[in-house]
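User: Sorry, what's this?
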Amino acid sequence: MSLAFLSSLFGKKKEEATPSEVEEVNVEELEEKVETREENEQLTQLMDRVNEIENDIPRIKISVDTLKKNIQELRDDIERLDKTIKDVMMLYEVISQEINPFKEQMGQENPLSNEIQELRKEIEDLKMELAQVKNDIKVLAGYGVDLDSIIYEVLAEV
């Protein structure tokens, strides 16, 4: 009997070993399923985020285009303001040279005022020459010289 008892004990142990192997296989399968489920959840979260980003891209593009347009308008406005400021500064320079009692001192420092002074001098010289030409014409007319023929000859030479 003891042999039967021992063999039954060993047989039961063998039978008991089989369910533990099944449990090990089931535990491995369960671990794989859990890992697969976690991976699927992560993939789902990633896909949701990708979809959100894809939905945001057109709005971002429109915003960028609007900003580009606004920046170009600002550049145009700045260029117009710059031109206006330059014009005002030139006008200020001319007016301040006319009114300023220190214009001679400033004229030496500013090239624009130097040019204006040179132009004034040339205008004064031309006025003097015109006055001399008028006087000469009056004198010639007083002596009976034919001014029309002289004018035609000068014009023909030019």
